[in-house]
Design brief:
By secondary structure, this protein is an alpha+beta fold. Helix content is 37%, strand content 17%. The chain is built from six helices and eight strands, in the order αββααββββαββαα. The strands form two sheets. A five-stranded antiparallel sheet has the order 1-2-4-5-8, sandwiched between helices. Strand 1 and strand 2 form a beta hairpin. The longest helix has 24 residues. The radius of gyration is 17 Å and the shape is globular. The N terminus is likely disordered.
Length: 197
């Protein structure tokens, strides 16, 4: 079983924590998710809102939104979560990165797919990792970012290894995930510009 399949099938255990990547918000009990989301000043991270986006057909793979919610559990209790989506375009988000995508395309750099942390179709500030009160926020945030990097690297490995490469259609997915970060795009842009000029 590949690292990606392990992430998908059962999550990853590190120390006393279990990491699970979920394909839909309904895989988390509403009370557990909302225990993390309700104390925040925004309703746009609550379980019901995210579920409506998915069940209405708005934030689903066919619309270019592939939910991949990260959850962190300790002894069966949800202690942290992040609503995340794999995207093959920049529509329906308020990140306004169309210029970056256009520049990358012109320079022959792959920009999509990308992993996006936000609430779809919501022009409101306030996205954050959901962390239970009393937990070490800085420590969990760092651990979640490390897990996101690990997840993304597992996908990149599949994409870059022809023997392991699968199409996302064969795997029941809309498209594959490539780790997205501004420094990677910026470095590739500089490399292309240096070779052309």
């Amino acid at each position: 079983m590949s690292q990606f399949e392990q992430h998908q099938a059962m999550g990853v255990k590190t120390g006393k924590l279990q990491w699970q990547w979920l394909e839909r918000i309904e895989d988390v009990p509403p009370g557990a998710w909302n225990a993390l989301a309700l104390p925040l000043a925004t309703p746009f991270l609550e379980w019901q809102w995210l579920r409506h986006l998915e069940t209405s057909g708005s934030a689903i793979p066919q619309a270019g939104w592939l939910p991949r919610h990260l959850t962190v559990w300790r002894q069966g209790t949800l202690i942290a979560a992040a609503p995340l989506y794999i995207k093959g375009h920049s529509q329906g988000e308020f990140v306004f990165d169309h210029q970056w995508a256009d520049l990358a395309q012109r320079l022959g750099i792959r920009y999509y797919p990308k992993l996006l942390g936000m609430t779809p179709f919501t022009p409101a500030e306030g996205y954050r990792f959901l962390i239970a009160p009393g937990e070490d926020e800085a420590e969990l945030t760092a651990a979640m970012l490390t897990e996101i990097d690990r997840f993304a690297q597992a996908i990149i490995d599949l994409l870059q290894n022809p023997d392991k490469r699968i199409t996302m259609g064969q795997a029941g997915r809309a498209y594959a995930l490539e780790k997205f970060n501004w420094s990677r795009i910026a470095a590739e842009v500089v490399d292309v510009l240096e070779t052309r000029f």
